[in-house]
What does this fold into?
Amino acid sequence: MSGYSDWPMRAIARKLGAPYSICEVMIDSFVSTLKDRAKTRHHLLVTDNDHPVGAQLMGAAPDEFPSAARKLVEAGFDVIDINFGCPAKKASGRCRGGFHLGQPDVAIEILRRVRDAVPSETPVTVKMRRGLDETHQSRDNFFRIIESAFELGIAAVTVHARTVEQKYVGPSRWSFLKEVRQLFPNRTLLGSGDLFTAADCVRMLQETGVDGVTAARGSIGNPWIFSQAAALLRGEPMPPPPTVHEQREVICAHFRLAEQILPRDQVSKQLRKFCIHYSAWHPVAEAVRTAFIAVRNAHDWHQVIAREYAFEQPGRYPANPGNAGQTLEGSCVEPG
Ligand SMILES: Cc1cc2nc3c(=O)[nH]c(=O)nc-3n(C[C@H](O)[C@H](O)[C@H](O)COP(=O)(O)O)c2cc1C
It folds into this structure.
């Protein structure tokens, strides 16, 4: 997730049970020209405890993908994922992301070029929306691309069951995932869209038959979603919400990890974004959320932690899971 699934978020998610993670989308030319400068180096950071991890690439021209894909493999990413889903104007206006769903020949060529460019043992995967829009043409394009993808040796396809036109408005059509599952019973399919709680993750698996689910907005400030979903899948009851001190431990660990990769002045700014969501687990969620919204610097941030997380008490399940996340839209911006 652009703006979120950086190295610290991935580290926290993995520590709390995420079996796989994918970094923020990166533009092919950005990767190819990336210099080993302190400011941008962290985009390619993969550490020993960060496996398996996928890197996601987005771009316009098939020619520009191969060198970027190879560079990501050299950096240590285990999987190369291609983005055919980003709905941001900035992406489609530059013929990237979801735009490719409207030009299947180019999309297929990109997949071919990336598959050929990286070692055969490196899985190449693709993330797609269910189409550009609701037209038959869009639907045909989707199926042409996914069929070719599997023929080309693409290891897995993640389907976000909204259209590009829909952006993030309206529900993700899970029945579409079921349909894709039925048409490709032996391929690896991952589902995306409207996974705000562990129960949502389990329900998508059960209702659609996909092999895996990809938590997105539902994992921001909620790294507990992974172990909770795993518990439910083992047939266990939903674990209790993390206590206030358990929350503090995770939030502070997140802050310390961010300190390792970001300039000083950006750490509290980045953590503020996450903490607005972390606050949903606090017994006085609204007040803590308001306090985090008011944070302007690291001093403010530490004060909120010291004041609101001082006393150990039980946490609370978020009152309206996904409510805050629903207003977030992926921007798929060019990092750096
Ligand atoms: C802030 C934000 C950033 C996103 N960035 C990416 C991205 O870089 N790559 C990607 O494939 N999808 C990205 N997405 C889309 C999500 O991966 C996911 O498909 C979408 O949010 C639907 O799932 P959800 O309804 O459970 O959030 C982003 C979404 C949001 C809200």
